[in-house]
Amino acid sequence: MVTVRAILKIVALVITALALPAALGAPTVIGALALNVPRTDGASARPAPVAHDPAKPTAIVVVGDRGAVVSDALAPYEILATTGAFNVYTVASESHPVPLTGGLDLVPDLTFAELEHVLDGPADVVVVPAMPDVGQPTTKPVTDWLVTQASRGALLLSVCNGAGVLASAGLLDGHRATAHWLRIDEFEGRYAAVEWVRGTRYVDDGAVISTAGVLSGIDGTLHVVERLIGADAAADAAEAIGWRHHHPGGPAPMEQAGLGASDAVVAFNTAFGWDRPTVGVLLTGGVGEIELASVFDTYGESLAVGTVAVGAGPVRSRHGLTFIPRSETAAGLDRLVVPGTTEHDAVAGPEPEYLHHGRGFPYDGVLQNLARITDVSTAHWAAKVLEYPIDDLALSGPTWPWTETLRFVGLAAGGMLAALAVFALVRRTRDGGSAAARRERDQLLVSSPNVRNG
User: Fold this and answer.
1) What CATH architecture does domain 277-394 belong to?
2) Which of 194-203, 250-259, 400-409, 419-428 has the highest mean predicted lDDT (pLDDT)?
3) How far apart are the first and last CA of the chain?
4) 368 Cβ partners below 8 Å, 6+ apart?
5) 245 φ, ψ to 5°?
6) Over 60: is that where the pLDDT of 157 sits?
7) DSSP 122-185
8) CATH of span 56-241
9) Looking at per-residue confidence, does 171 or 22 come out higher?
10) 284 closest CA partner among 325, 244, 254
11) How far apart are CA 78 and CA 88, in angstroms?
12) Cβ count near 352 (within 10 Å)
């Protein structure tokens, strides 16, 4: 029969075995999940004056003071801009650079106040990406502005966990909505007045359209184009960006994702990827917004590769966004990649790699590169978080992050051996004390008169 003492001993062994990996892995986790801090010298990099065509509908991509998820913001922006049918602007409460995930600093086109001088009324479409401070007081300038836009008749499109931003403002109460599979359960508990929907890439509930995770935002944005401009315009935009999953007429059904055993890969990468590579991403003029997002987001979602925006100064993207690099050189970095299909003069550092020279959607080449420099399981994790179907995408590389896994196993074994040594020492001390007590007792018995006289 297993005793309570034996159970407690097993529990103590497990806790001690995990304590060492946890202690040594925690700094890596904190570093991997740390929020990006933008450069603060963006005042000299103000975008070119905004051109506005009053004959076109206006679409706004709003970003918070602490930034937004890079794909959530840039993919809808490029799709809407590609159609040529919209005025498209990025807007924030202040004019300083804001960090998009992965370390890409964006200078918003307009502040909320400046937008008022451009438009006579509300925007026609407002795209709300996921923000790192969703549900926190720091989003109040954004949520207050969204409430005003909604009250004036703007169509709201939340991308991924941008649904949490809308829900925190009360703008999803009484609506059907969806969000990223990793957080929809949390949102369901926090925002009970919303009817949360799973297993679909987007939900159109009239005044609000919400999408599931990250690249499901492409489907939602194409639906906005289809709804406001027409089916042909949406099909042309999908072809222009290489999106082969376009599903006109309604959302494509999908299996609701959830965490599985294979997703342990992210824990090993995050906690034990002590030597994870840092990739410089060269910012070049005219680069596509989705091409940029594909590099920063794919590597970032893997939690196995760090990224640094590199360049000589502010650059303008294909459709006019302004970005600021964080480093002028790639010297000291492990790799250097160049988004886009055009070769450029490289900066000091590693030999440049071009990930978008092959045909297809920009994320394909980055996922294939990620599999080669890390492993296939990590690439599958990144695609799962991005909600990007890759059944038809060939990936080659190691199958699993074996080095990181062996680090965990080695540390866990070391922790368990240390625990066993402590247990042995405690037992030896206890047994030694018991033996000494027995000897003292025996000596007392022998020296007792009653014992001596038999």
Assistant:
1) 3-Layer(aba) Sandwich (3.40)
2) 194-203
3) 43
4) 379, 393, 394, 395, 396
5) -110, 20
6) yes
7) --SEEEE---TTTTSGGGHHHHHHHHHHHHTTPEEEE-TTHHHHHHHTTTTTTSEE---TTTHH
8) 3.40.50.880
9) 171
10) 325
11) 9
12) 17
Residue 343: which pLDDT band, with cuts at 50, 70 and 90? confident
H-helix segments, 312-375: 362-373
Q: Which amino acid is at 132?
A: P
The CA distance from 82 to 62, in Å, is 18
Please state the rounded mean pLDDT for residues 327-337. Answer: 95
Contact 125, 155 (CB under 8 A): yes
- Lowest pLDDT segment from 23-27, 121-125, 218-222: 23-27
Q: At what angle do helices 70-83 and 216-228 cross, to 10 degrees?
A: 30
The more confidently predicted of residues 400 and 414 is 400
Q: Are 237 and 82 in contact (CB under 8 A)?
A: yes
Buried b (16+ CB within 10 A) or exposed e, 86-106: bbbbbbbbebbbbbbbbbbbb
Q: What is the mean pLDDT of residues 215-222?
A: 98
Q: pLDDT at residue 331 above 80?
A: yes
With beta carbons less than 8 A apart as the criterion, state whether 182 and 212 touch. no
Count of alpha carbons within 13 Å of 231, Cβ hemisphere only? 4
